[in-house]
Structure formats: C-alpha cells, structure tokens
Amino acid sequence: MKAVCFHERPNAGSCDRDPPGPGPLDMGRQRKEGAVMKHEAREDVERQPQTEARGLSRREVLALAALAGAASLDALVPSLGHAQAPRKIKMTLPWLPMGHFAFFFVARDKGFWQKRGLDVSIDRGMGSADAAKLVGAGRYEFGYADLATMILVAGQGMDLTSVGMVNYISPLGLTSLKKSNIVKPKDLEGKRYGTSAGSGEFVLFPAFARAAGIDGDKVQKILMSPVALSKALIEGTIDVRGSFYPSMVDLMAMGVETNQILYHNAGLKMYSLGIFTTRDRVRADRDLCARFTAGALEGLAYSYLHIDETIDLHLRAIREYQGASYSREMVRLGLLVNAALGIDAVPQEKGLGWMDPEMVRQTRDLVVKYMGLKSEPPLDALYTNAFAGTVRLSAAEWQRVKDAARPYILW
Known about the structure:
By secondary structure, the protein is an alpha/beta fold. The chain has three domains: 4-80, no CATH class; 87-167 and 271-408, D-Maltodextrin-Binding Protein, domain 2; 172-266, D-Maltodextrin-Binding Protein, domain 2, CATH 3.40.190. It is 40% helix and 14% strand. It has helices at 33-46, 50-54, 58-68, 73-76, 102-109, 128-136, 147-155, 200-203, 205-212, 229-235, 249-253, 279-284, 286-305, 307-317, 328-341, 345-350, 357-370, 395-405, and strands at 4-6, 87-92, 118-123, 142-146, 160-165, 172-177, 192-195, 220-223, 240-244, 258-262, 273-278, 391-393. Helix 5 packs across helix 13 (286-305). The relative contact order is 0.17.
C-alpha cells in the first residue's frame, strides 16, 4: 500500500515510496498506471446504457478486463452495482469550530472521508476533558483534544488512545500587551497574572516557573472567568493572561499588539491537540480507524496548502454552529497558527500524525507530576502510530507551509 502525497499541482498523486512503520495505508488514492486503466475500464462500462438494465455476462466482463489491460475484475464489478451507503460516524471538537479546527470541515466537505466510505458529522465541544469523556463513554467514535487532557481522563479510567498528532508544539503560555514589555519569564515577577481555575496553563504554571528559573510565588494569580480574561488584559486590570496560542487570534484580528511567552520555549515540551478514539475501537475496528484518520490528515494537508479555499469552506460550514466566529481574519490566523504548531521534524520525516514515543512519554510524565494523575498509564496504551504517516507533504510543500506560517512561529 502507498501513502497519500501532496504535490505541487492541486490534485495529489500517488507516493512512490511506502511509509515507515506499521500499517501503511492507501486510502483511496489512485495507483499510477493501474488506476488509470481501471478508470478507463469503468468509463467503457458506463458508456453502455444496457449494462445496468440487464447486467453483464461473465464473458463480457472478462472482455472489458482484457481491453483495460491491467484492470482487475474486482475493480470493474463494483462500478456495475449500486454504491454501498457510507458509514455514519460522529466526532466532537474540543470547542467551537475555530480556524485551527477547519481541516476537519475540509475533510468532510472536500470528500476526503466520503471517498473512504464515511459520512462524518462534527459537533462542537465544551473543552478537551469533556470531549475525552464523551468519546470514552461511547457518545462519539472520535474526538479532537489536548493530549495531556486525554491522558488525564484515560488515567481516570476511560479507555482512550491517540491515533494522530496535529499540534507538535504545545500552545500553552502567557499573553501580555506589547506595551507592557513583558517579553521573558523573569519579567512576570511582580506582575498580575489572570487565569481560570483548571486551565491547562494554570495547572502547569509551577512546572513552567521551575523550568524557566523564576519565583512563581512572586507572580500574583488572579482567578476569573475565561471570557473575562482578554477584556481584563486590554483594560489593564491584569498584566498578563493565561493563553492557548490559537485562541489568541481574537486579539490578533483586532489589531491588538501582544507578546507571547510559550511554556515550550522555557523547556516544557509536550504534545497538544490530536485525534483520538478508544483502545477498544482500535482493536475491534482498525479499518474504521484507518479510514477516519487518513481522511482527517488529508484534510489537514489540504488546509496547510490551500489557505484561502479553506477559509471559504470553513465559513460556509460553520453556519450551523451557534456562537461560531464568522471573522475571515480570525479563521485565517487560526489556520496559520495551526500550521505553525504542526511544523516539526517528525511529521516531515514520518508523515502527518506520527508521534514520537519520547514526546508522548514526556507529556504523560508532566500529567502525572502536575495534573494530579495518581497512576501512570502504560505508554503503549496512550498512542498508536498504526494509522499515522499515510499522508505526506513533499519538501517543497513543507517549505510553502513554513513560509506562510513564519510570522507565527515563536520558537
């Protein structure tokens, strides 16, 4: 089987090399010459109006196969009958459909799931923890959530595992107004830090302070509602707010100049948003997991390379979601920040979605140490690369992604 590759032309062709790792998949991409001949054979069949009415004899089918050359009987027969109804699947986002989630709507509306026999509905979420619990409870087949939060929920008894990483750089950090001149961790001492109880960056603040070499007790913590944080920052009632980098696009779109201090830059390196499901589903329905993951990752690659089209598609798709933002600029910024967080040596070498076991272990260890997880889940229970790496970008395409996302790469 061969991996889906994106090339410089809009329509991706086949990859000439097999992807590394277990379970390489070719999820519906055309093979080179054989696929062309199969397509020609199907056209030959479709041009005969009597075919559907009376069916073809075995002799006629064999004759068509001979005309097609390398086209197999198995490739011809499905085109003669009615297509099988796509399998209905539900997935949940961790929040409202923002720009950095747009690739899921690309996968749905560009037909990347449909051609793999899936009809996927996408629901908004109420946070990564909620998404993880709903998938674990069987309400959804798949979800999208922060890996640390998924590990925390898995450690509390939910049967969850990651099947594809998207954000290889953690977006957790702190945001301040540029005029405040808070540019490095040491500048936080003596400042007012607005955050909300239970937010990821607040829970991990002690780890960040230790890694950055600052006295966390000298930073005044002010707890408030998440929706009040940006307003408080602009009005000056706090000096810095806890942040999740892609969610700061609202300030960016308003033209508010900010500084970002990412925990990643202080040495707190961990994975973040990724695709997940249950371990039981991975064991019992590997084909579904392969098709869903490959379709989503093809949507991700397309969103990296076709920003304007993805914005248009996303804005059409989110009309059904109450509370979603219709700001074109916010969607554009979300797409570019998402691309920046996906630039890493691992997906460039192994293919999109692939996870480095050491980074998964490091993420798990931070969850155990700082997020109150009492038991340490086995590493191999928390992720699988069996369905990752099937979608690849060429070196030239990665360069295009880097050039577009360069202003938003802060590490």
